[in-house]
């Protein structure tokens, strides 16, 4: 199997993972967040106190950010097989944004969930942050 097919396969698998998380009803999604809080508490980190009772909200938004950070990285990695750096970064952020929009639209059909433009911005910012990390690592590598 070619490297290009493997890279695009990873993109599609990750998009599927995002879709599955978005398909969970509001109650199941909250259970996942509570599990994270439980794990942190077990490790001695009182995340609710640290985050002034906003742990559930912040964990959900951090999950959005992280999902799309990973999506951008996988897209960029697949696109750079066929495009130069600038084109790869631009196409990857456009696709990341469009997938975030489609994800929020999908959530409008899931019980207990709903679309939020704020989430599109958080998702896209995960992609933008990944783009900055890639750009900075490229600059650092050139200086060596």
UniProtKB/TrEMBL annotation:
The chain crosses the membrane at residues 58-76, 83-101, 121-140. NCBIfam families: vanZ_1. It comes from the Bacteria. This is VanZ like family protein. The keyword Transmembrane applies. Keywords: Membrane, Transmembrane, Transmembrane helix. Residues 9-136 form the VanZ-like domain. It holds the Pfam family VanZ.
